[in-house]
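Worked problem 6 (solution included).
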Amino acid sequence: MGSLLAGRVALVTGSTSGIGLAIALRHAQEGAKVMLNGFGRPEEIAKARATVGAAMGVAEAPYSAADMADPAQVRAMVEGCIADLGGCDILVDNAGVQHVSPVEDFPDAQWDRIIAINLSSNFHAIKAALPGMKAKGFGRIINVASAHGLVASPFKTAYVAAKHGVLGLTKSVALEVARTGVTCNAICPGFVRTPLAEAQVQPLAEKHGVSEERALTDFLLERQPTKKWVEVEEIAEAALFLCGPASGSINGTALSVDGGWVAQ
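Solution. The predicted structure is:
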């Protein structure tokens, strides 16, 4: 186990599975005390807490069940992290949801939910965590955006709007904190290998009458030049770098980890 983040406290939202869990685990492996957050089946949450806890040398990692769509719960989560773990040095805003629909049929409730979770929760968490970071003279805010924060796709209006908003939020916060020892950056993943994403391959193969391999490369990863999944560990390593000593002058940046998607 490393010690790059020894003495630091990290709060990672949406960290009971996928990208968030990988980031939380990697930070714990480098010595950080990590608080998890997210939804899921009780046994999945318990497994995540045990896995990250083991990396921290404790039975289970601290966990908040805060609903990222509720500003009061977001604030309480950050305050709980500060009270229970002694601070919030690293904030990784990763929680996100998706809905796919033509704009004229897009349910109002889904628009509101996606904007609340994918964008507004970042604002509320940053607002709550920033005073403590400034007081300490150190902070790392990482917003997990998306390639869809830089380019658009049809039928994903709320998600694309939210992720573009995340990049604007990232830049504005970065300018405000530039002389405080705090940085604010975004990571923009392409298609990442997660159970939810992998589950899309078989239906695509059946729809188009092709093999699952063809469905993956020709349809799901059509815009990802490498034709390979981005692995969650790659996102975790990018987040870790942004928290380390070599990244102090990286501020307000959107770091693409997308196999060349937005280079086109």
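Discussion: The two ends are 38 Å apart (CA to CA).
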